[in-house]
Amino acid sequence: MIEQRPSRTDLLVAAAVLVVAVVEVTLNGEISPTAAALPCEIALAVVLLWRRVAPLAVVGVVAIVQVVEAAAGVPLEQPVVPLLASVIAIYALITCADTVHAAVGAVIGLAAVGIETLLQHKGFGNFAFAAVFIGGAILVGRTVAHRTQQTVHLQHKADTLERNAEASARAAAEAAQVERARIARELHDVIAHSLSVMVVQAGAAEQVMARDADRARAAIAAVQATGRDALAEMAHLVGMLREDSGELGLAPQPGLADVSQLVDQARCDGLGVELHVEGEERPLPPGPALSLYRVVQESLTNVRKHAAGAQASVRLTYSARGIDADVCDTGPAQHTGNGLPSGGHGLIGMRERVALYGGTLAVGSHPDGG
């Protein structure tokens, strides 16, 4: 990766090469003329400071300085710094730059070694010796660059998956909130209808109280029963947010008595469905009855969407502990990765409704289909 400015590591590498350059020129008497060798090797060390800022330019400068030093008569086989600087510069270029620039830099480095060999009339062995080190730098650099790219790619992929997971979680939370708001509106309508019934019954009791005490008492008892049901529904409604402030509904919501009509409507829509009722039927409060109705309605909708042409059955089972609703079909369902039928946010709504009254929802496929 190309950097904007030299790092502390670049400074340390350049300083280390500078120390080697000064030491070898000072202590090695065969490196001569010193007046040419010392400035060249200092330049080779200093230019490495920008090896990851402008890697191709650094390779070019190193190659030029190497040729100048060889042309000045400094023995090719004596100094270590020219070859060391060339290897460091080419390695940095291979790991930082793209393939085209890396190839150009490799050619420049090998060309500089070839020119040095020709200037000093050396044999092929000198060229091959330097080429082996340069080739090693190229090979190691490509390996490091490839692994770095893989690491960056995997990190990017992991970040993308994390963002997608967060977006899915937000979408699910928003969908759940929308369902809660919709359920709250329906419960509000149930309570509003109950209150309107109470007003009517109280008015009737007032009108007949003087001439028919028994009818008045019956009306008052009905007001009490309706009031208790309304208070129970109000307890479930507390804490839910109503997102819109439109006109409050007063119409009664559907309940268990309307499930048969729901099944009949599904038959009219082309779905083969049967309704079975087991146990002793008894009335439920409006809230749980509405939730059960909506669960059956959504289940039949899912059958039409995901198992077209299949036969379906709705079974309501009354027991001492409550009521169970079982909706099954005979067709192959479409599935998502979690093993549940795909259906947008319908499952979220069903779970919210059932959990509101302490119930449980189980969704899945039979081993033999359906």
**Spatial order of the strands forming the largest sheet:** 1-2-3
Count up the helices: 10
What percent of the residues sit in helical stretches (DSSP H or I)?
A: 55-70%
Largest sheet: 3 strands, mixed
Structure summary:
With 370 residues, the chain is mainly α. Helix content is 65%, strand content 6%.
Task: Please describe what this structure looks like.
- The chain is mainly α and 370 residues long.
- Among the domains are: 8-122, no CATH class; 256-356, Histidine kinase-like ATPase, C-terminal domain (Heat Shock Protein 90).
- It has helices at 8-27, 34-47, 55-71, 81-96, 99-119, 124-208, 213-237, 259-268, 286-306, 346-356; strands at 272-278, 311-319, 322-329.
- Residues 239-251 and 335-344 have low confidence and may be disordered.
List descriptors.
single chain; 370 residues; mainly alpha; Heat Shock Protein 90; 10 helices; 65% helix; rod-shaped
Outline the secondary-structure elements.
Elements: H1 8-27, H2 34-47, H3 55-71, H4 81-96, H5 99-119, H6 124-208, H7 213-237, H8 259-268, E1 272-278, H9 286-306, E2 311-319, E3 322-329, H10 346-356
Parallel strand pairs: 1-2
Antiparallel strand pairs: 2-3
